[in-house]
Amino acid sequence: MTRPNWDADEHESSAKHDDRARSDDGATARDIIVHNPNPDRRGRWLPASIVVLGAIAMVQAVAFDIVAGLRWNALLVGAALIATGAYNYVRRTDAALGSVGVATLTAILGLWLVASPFVIGPETATVAAANELSATITVVVGLLVVGIGSYSAVTARARRGDADARETAVYDRRGQ
């Protein structure tokens, strides 16, 4: 950091300090600088679709008579997808950019949904047809989540780089 070209010792101790933006209640409108990197609230469909896919994962787990391990997996991962999608949706609705980390976590959860039917697998033959249909739905939902989550992470990172820089206040006491 460079040293300013004026010295703090030059400030006269009896000079009035700058209290233009002060009030008894704290910050005034002049003190607040609104940072709005996503003014058009772009990209809300991405996290909204993640919420829908998380709900599909949860509904299919309850609708079919599947192995308990697959059911709990789909319920927990579906709830996590709803939470991550809702978080990024709220961020983008508030004119902020989506979180790259949350979108990446969403893509990782999608990868787990793709792998989970093969890792956990069906245990009994009595529910084999329901397990196969549920596994197919889980894999399709997982692939969609991986694609949307990855796209969301990449676009959020790119938009973060293109966003306007946050304005900062510059306070200069020279001339007081």
UniProtKB/TrEMBL annotation:
InterPro entries: SPW. Signal peptide: none annotated. The chain crosses the membrane at residues 45-64, 70-90, 97-121, 133-154. Residues 1-36 are annotated as: Disordered. Residues 1-28 have a biased composition (Basic and acidic residues). Residues 49-148 form the SPW repeat-containing integral membrane domain. Keywords: Membrane, Transmembrane, Transmembrane helix. This is SPW repeat-containing integral membrane domain-containing protein.
